[in-house]
Known about the structure:
Structural class: alpha+beta
Number of helices: 6
Number of domains: 2
Radius of gyration: 23 Å
Amino acid sequence: MLFSGSIRWAFAALLGVLVLSSIAFRASVAALNVYLRKEPVALRESFDTIPTKLGRWRRVGQDGRMGDAMVESLGTNQYLDRHYALDGDPSKGVLLLHIAYYTGMVDAVPHVPERCWGAAGMLMVKQPHEVKVPIDRAEWDTQSGPLHPVSGDRYPIARVLDPVTRVESNVHMPLGETDFSVTVFQEEAKAGVRFVGGYLFVANGRMTSSPYVVRTYAFDLANRHAYYCKIQFSMVVNDADGAEERWTAATADLLGQVLPSVMKCLPDWPEMEKLESKES
């Protein structure tokens, strides 16, 4: 079917507007230093370099290894599953430390206990809620670190001792509070036993307990690169009444020991900010 000349001219004009709009959009994005596609940034060290002895905590057993199907479900092959026991004695309490690293992924959905444990058939007895997990920051340098370009907050600095070389190094710590999203489960056949799991995220140098806020942090349009890391602690407690309190105390102790080592593995975000500033 043939169209009249006026329709052909209207179609050509509309096509021209779309082409010009596309060009203008790309030009505006470039001029404003907006990055819609995120570039990945590699870990500085593998998570298995995290010390097996941290304060009074000792690794028990070997680090967990997932099958191909589990890795595909997790969405990354850069992870750590490790059990730590107080004084190396499981009778004093065991924490499962799970770390998973994601980078360059805009639509990655974090795997969190409230989804995974529920899918495994456990019963949720306490909905996800925020729990403050205070850690000892007395030895952190809060005066000398670089400034975050948006908030103006200063990145803290912690000293990390290499377990092999025994050489100390400075590590930039993330901004924010160590608040965790915590969920409590039980197996149907074990009414007195509680499974407590809590997590937070480190994303582009900032911490949050929210799976939604982590996307805002990691995929800030002003940043060319993007990463986020989930840090999760799980514990089986044979005491329904004090389960969450035991988890919080144990997690606070181990987190204070392990967080500097985790940050030594993650990208040095203040240095990335300097690099991106020079490139823009």
